[in-house]
Amino acid sequence: MSLAPSAAPSPAPVVRDDLSGPFFDASAEGRLLLRYSPSSGEWSEPAAMVCSLTQAADLEWREASGRGSLVSWTVKPGRPRDDQPAVDTVIGIVETEEGPWLTLLLPEVTDRSVLRVGASVVVGFVQPEGSEHLPVGRLVG
Q1: What is d(CA 45, CA 39) in angstroms, rounded to the nearest whole number?
Q2: Structure confidence by residue, pLDDT tens digits, 15-49
Q3: DSSP category for residue 2
């Protein structure tokens, strides 16, 4: 899922390396991948080199549901640019249905009163200029 552009600042460009290639290939297709350990049956965050619970080194990429819930958030104050008003950036900590927590921009949140612990989140993707497709969160329901 791609999200419509918003007034919120774009995330900084990110480039791939050998480890992150499959993640960004899937992101470009609108799919979220997480790391999974077949020996332990545990999921880990995308940047994990070993299982975050058992330290098993048999991680493989698996498609995740792309759904989760908001655990916490913060607001990064924006700065005015080129005579444009400051736009704050909302950053959420999202617990995926599979378990790992992801730090995601919530670019569509303009009314902070909708933020609450446990709010449902779906992962979408944006592609900042000169960057790979990146996951972002969207509140639903």
Answers
A1: 16
A2: 889 999 999 999 999 999 999 999 999 999 999 99
A3: B
